Amino acid sequence: MFKERDQEETRDSTDHRSKGSGSLTGQSMLLLTVHGLVAVGNALSGTFVNVYLWKARHDYAVIGWFTLIHHLTMALTFWLAGKWVKEHNKMNCLRAGVGISALFYLLVLVLGASAADYYPLLGIVQGMSAGFFWLAFNVVYFEVTDPDNRDKFNGWAGLLGSLAGMIAPWVSGILIVRMEAVNGYRLIFTLSLVTFLIAMICSFFLKKRKAAGHYEWLLTIRCLKQKDTEWRKVWLALMAQGIREGVFGFIIALLVYISTGTEMKIGNFSLITSAVALLAFWLCGKLLKPSWRKWSMPIGAIAMVTVILPFFWKVDYTTLLIFGIGVAIFFPLYTIPMTSTVFDLIGRFEESAKQREEYIVMRELGLNAGRLLGTLVFTLVIMRTSSPAAMNWLLLAIGSSPLIAAFFMRKQLRQPALQSRQEDTRK
């Protein structure tokens, strides 16, 4: 094990007591608080942004291009902001992400009904906010956790996200339906803006973390060119994971609205599926052990593909709910091992732990490459045909990518989680 002397000075006694015990530190709990507030802000309005654009245009392609621009901007932001996080102030990067999220909803409020005409601008702003926030968040997450508590942190993060996804969209759906639609959307966008501002205030209680080293711009290319590196298969797994995320992140809520014609059903859908996910994440965070990852991830991936099959019978609220509940149950089995194993790999060796910013950028570039590919394929196909049969086969093909991710991760999942070589970077 090694110690990063530049970070030892800011480590508090709480972290010393919890190190290696599997419990969460004060800083990790505060980071979870910021994560939870961001999840609430996104859940309040993020679920309905695509519906808002759809009601203005009724065009899948507009939603697809908006999402594509978002992912492209997010990838570029990750790569460019890596230098800021590595050599300057990572906490300001995190706050910038939260602040730009607030700006996004302010723009939507100002643009109003013409927002769909400015989808490229909105995609860029939303992509920048996600890039800044998640890059800084993942770096700090790596530093405040170790293999002993990483699954627990991910379980709590998933639980908070599920709780936000359960309550916030349901409240938003009620507000939109019971108020005049325009006023309802204005209110939920305003609530999101305020929530992000609160999250920014909370982020100032996170400790400033010293920067060290110089950012290596082309580490991703250098690493992937090495034939003997484990990162080549891991990167392909991340890309496969992103293929599904890029499309299913927006299409399911939109299909619920198209099938039912009311935002209230989206809220009910989120309430039910997120309640199931909350319980599933709580159980997995509590019970899932590193030695079980090699089984849980493939099981989760297979189940997530299986629940797409009812769409071939009929795409309505019932089959969408079956899909949503199935994913809610099995998604933690898939995502917790995936996330924890990748971050364990970063912390396994002294060199990669010291270059954690670059490796986290590489992780995010893999995910975003997959998101871009999945969204691009979806958009190009849907521009040619939007028949139900084509949509079903497209969703099955894109939704099967977790199987590819599990295949490429099979070797990593079988390796025991080594005692963290970077546990002393926690503060």
From TrEMBL:
Residues 1-18 have a biased composition (Basic and acidic residues). Keywords: Membrane, Transmembrane, Transmembrane helix. SUPFAM superfamilies: MFS general substrate transporter. Pfam families: MFS_1. InterPro entries: MFS, MFS_trans_sf, Sugar_transport-like. It is found in: Cell membrane. This is MFS transporter. One of its GO terms (cellular component) is plasma membrane. GO terms for molecular function: transmembrane transporter activity. The chain crosses the membrane at residues 29-54, 60-81, 93-115, 121-144, 156-179, 185-206, 234-260, 266-283, 295-313, 319-345, 389-409. It is a multi-pass membrane protein. Residues 1-22 are annotated as: Disordered. Coiled coil: none annotated.
